[in-house]
Amino acid sequence: xxxxxxxxxxxxxxxxxxxxxxxxxxxxxxxxxxxxxxxxxxxxxxxxxxxxxxxxxxxxxxxxxxxxxxxxxxxxxxxxxxxxxxxxxxxxxxxxxxxxxxxxxxxxxxxxxxxxxxxxxxxxxxxxxxxxxxxxxxxxxxxxxxxxxxxxxxxxxxxxxxxxxxxxxxxxx
Length: 173
Known about the structure:
Layout: H1 3-10, H2 24-33, E1 35-38, E2 41-45, E3 51-56, H3 61-65, E4 72-76, E5 79-80, H4 87-91, E6 99-105, E7 111-117, E8 119-122, E9 126-134, E10 137-144, H5 151-165, E11 169-172
Parallel strand pairs: 10-11
Antiparallel strand pairs: 1-8, 2-3, 3-4, 4-5, 4-6, 6-7, 9-10
């Protein structure tokens, strides 16, 4: 009956967690304009079963709230993170103004409460680029996050930086 019904009938949810259906406007907003409505962080369960913040976009609602990479999400809207099967569903619609309550353990081990509302987030494709000097070598370190249209220019800038710094090797994260 709908595009989503067709997708649901075709995929094996156990193995395919990346396929989805979107409309042209949402596709354009994300891949061409490089924006989306959200909290501005990546989130995933680590090997120990803890739900972790994997990155935070600069200037995003999460960034403005003081959330950083490595925080452990203990609760979302009063529900223990380990009991949530569908994180996207728990966070609600990706529209501006949707607000969620989080209980998180920061990187110093302190537990903090956050109320973060979704708003328009600018996607940053190169989350980090720097030069590490070790044993007389200059090692470029690049954290690449997203294959969207603006990634080409961001990667050109990062590699121009590495060339100017005389990088010998590269670590791509």
